[in-house]
Amino acid sequence: LVIVLDFGGQYNQLVARRVRECNVYCEIYSYKTDLEKIKAMNPKGIILTGGPNSCYEADSPTYSKELFELGIPVLGLCYGAQLMMHMLGGKVEKADAREYGKTEVIIDKTDSKIFEGVSPKTICWMSHFDYISKVAPGFEITSHTENCPCASAENVAENLYAIQFHPEVLHTQEGTKMLYNFVRNICGCAGDWRMDSFVEDQIKAIREKVGDGKVLCALSGGVDSSVAAVLLSKAIGNQLTCVFVDHGLLRKNEGDEVEAVFGPEGPYELNFIRVNAQERYYSKLKGVTEPEAKRKIIGEEFIRVFEEEAKKIGAVDFLVQGTIYPDVVESGLGGESAVIKSHHNVGGLPDHVDFKEIIEPLRDLFKDEVRKAGLELGIPENLVFRQPFPGPGLGIRIIGEVTADKVRIVQDADAIYREEIAKAGLDREIGQYFAALTNMRSVGVMGDERTYDYAIALRAVNTIDFMTAESAQIPYEVLNKVMSRIINEVRGVNRVMYDLTSKPPGTIEFE
Ligand code: XMP
Which residues carry out catalysis (predicted)? Predict the structure, then answer.
């Protein structure tokens, strides 16, 4: 285990992901975590992350100095590096100019273990105002840049390493190598964190925990709940019941696709219940136009439908949740990151389902690890690489009132869009893309006839974390083809527009 001690920087999850890419398991903890707790976890290494503060200011995040005296290798990154120097007797000061962006770093100590296999001059990502003007006693400078006398330093005898730049960011070309050197060579981690062992261990753990108990799972067809369901099915077979609520706001044919995989004709042993609640949802949503009201109705209705099904099944021992690690960190339980978005998973927990305990088998995984686990479990690729789809579904991609006819329009347009994106080979490249139905109707001409129909908006964004995003640059020919197909094939549409807005100020979804 490596511990990533979070000082509130923006790349903290990235640090943890990179460490795991080195096949080393790590967890993120807030800098407020007690030293005794850290010691009790017996980590092989500790990484201090960046953060927005200045370490010499009185109320800035800090840590017990004893952390550096445990003999456990410590790597400080950016703020973490400055804090290490500051606390151990070096000096950190405000620089005249901020060093920001891709920067050439010149390695002074080429035999430093951190830089093993790294080029003597290497491009790194810098982002700092403060700089280390004097290293702490016992430390040696191991690299510098044109503007920064100390880009990294180390005290080998004490196992302490400091790096001013961000090896976790992809712009640091040899950053992963540096982190690998730290966790594998300096900390001596074995590198046995692999998805096949995760899957095996989880199956064993689930069997032990569940015994001959009954388990209930809400299956949405998304990646997380699908992987969780298959994991449980492999562990406990038909002690598992999955309830799949088709709320009529899914993508075209999606309900049937989910049923094909998880239903009785599919390869998995489990009890599958599909609830066709389309009409029920449409009637609840009739006349409702306000986005939050729509979201609320969809979420609450989901809980009600689920509860009704659960009642038929009777008491169960466990309820499965598809929580993944970023959910844990973002809800403020893991690291120091502020609560960034309140969790907009459908609904929340049902109040009236009779269960004793929750099982969250994916709680420790990042999204890409969930996908790897999915592949390891033999789940079809098109399901594993399915793009994110919001819980409220097409309900928030139809601006204004939702009707069955509008659902049909947006489903058909979206299916064409996805088909053409896949044909152009862009489907794994673009972060998220979909068609939405604007509530706008306008005049057009088709054949010799005047039309007065809806406008479809196409959205496509590239993003790392879905908190910021930029519109994707889809080739014009592809957009043109999509436009002409939608207008020709989807009744009720006479205009197609491409949404260029980035996030912020826009959000990815329309409502
Ligand atoms: P926004 O629209 O907030 O979307 O920029 C960011 C990401 O979150 C997804 N999203 C949701 N996912 N339930 C979900 O499970 C929701 O209510 C919800 N709203 C937005 C959205 O698809 C995008 O990936």
Answer: 78 (nucleophile), 166, 168
Q: Look at the block and give the residue holding tokens 């017990």.
A: 64
Cα 506 versus chain centre, distance: 19
Q: Is pLDDT above 70 for 69?
A: yes
Amino acid at 340: I
Lowest mean pLDDT among 170-184, 319-333, 421-435: 319-333
Give the tokens for residue 158. 């004490």
Ligand 1 nearest atom to the CA of residue 389, by list position: 22
Q: Determine which residue's CA is closest to atom 22 belonging to ligand 1.
A: 390
Please tell me the predicted confidence (pLDDT) of residue 341.
36
Which residues does the annotation mark as catalytic? Answer: 78, 166, 168
Beta bridge partners of 155: 160
Ligand 1: centre distance to CA 120 (Å): 43
- Backbone dihedral angles phi then psi of residue 218, each to the nearest 5 degrees: -90, 115
- Taken in order of first residue, the domains within the chain and their CATH numbers are 2-186 (3.40.50.880), 195-384 (3.40.50.620), 397-498 (3.30.300.10)
Protein residues with CB under 6 Å of any ligand 1 atom: 344-345, 388, 390-392, 432, 466, 503, 507-509
Least confident of 299-308, 332-341, 391-400, 436-445: 332-341
Question: Does residue 418 carry a pLDDT above 60?
Answer: yes
| 98-116 confidence digits (pLDDT tens) | 999 999 999 999 999 999 9
CA 83/CA 130 separation, integer angstroms: 11
Q: How far is CA 391 from the centre of its chain?
A: 15
Does 502 belong to an annotated binding site?
no
Residues with Cβ within 8 Å of 345's Cβ and at least 6 positions away in sequence, in order, are 327, 391
The alpha carbon of residue 202 and the mean position of all alpha carbons in its chain are separated, in whole angstroms, by 21
Say yes or no to pLDDT of 400 above 50: yes
Residue nearest to atom 11 of ligand 1 (CA): 390
SS (H, E, C) 320-357: ECCCCHHHHHHCCCCCCCCCCCCCCCCCCCCCCCCCCE
Known binder of ligand: residue 24? Answer: no
ipTM: 0.98
